[in-house]
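May I ask you to comment on the folded chain given beneath this request?
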Amino acid sequence: MKQRSWSDVALNVWGVAVLVFLFLPILVIIVSSFNTGRLLVAWDAFGFDAFGALVTKPAIQDAVMVSIQTGLIAALLATLLGTLAGIAMARHPGRWAFWFIGLLLLVSVTPEIVDAVALLPWLVFLGQDLGIGLFNDGIVRLVIGHSLFSVAVVSYIVRARLIGLEGQLEEASADLYARPLTTFRRVTLPLAMPAVLAGFLLSFTLSLDNTVIAAFVQVSGTTPWPVYVLSALRSGLRPEIAAVSTIMLLLTLVALALVAVVLRRAGDSATQIARTMTGN
């Protein structure tokens, strides 16, 4: 048996330490969700009382439902726009695509606080100054704010999927006198569908934990879950906050697992799955 070098051992220990540092806070939240005490920081006893708050407390119910509703609508909007943009960049490259990718990159790297500060006066101008009542609706505001970054993510993912696939099938469809819309519906879209589904699920998970933009653009009566947690800091975090956060974490993990399953069923390798999910 070959003896391992000290550098290999040190790297393994360092890797484990990094993983513990990253995931220990999450583990603490999961364990704290089973606390029956009044405050999160004071352990009382083990129990499932905190999970009942999702049923017994209307404020928590409303916050969770607003987050899920906003996440689904924002994911649908981002998937629609991002899919069309990704297909266009992959199948019609050119100078315009270079500049368009630059704009998407700008959206991706812009700090959320900058987006939030820019969105708030713009939505107020549209809703109040111009009198467009649609932009006074809290769900509409949240959907717009949450879908900005997600559109760029979906565009990257769909483009990455189609860039690696030749366009001969679409060319063959055109040679057989299929209309462009028929080719798109029967050839291009099925080829891109794994990436489309992956983009939808990732957009949904990104919307669930969006806090900065949501805190700026939300209106009374449509407070999403992250903003509710932020406001709960003033009175002290309670175990039900950890319990619902644990449920939201599981929901996020399930969505990410579905992304991997969809791409795996499409025949992608682990490397291709990682590239698709990161838009490379």
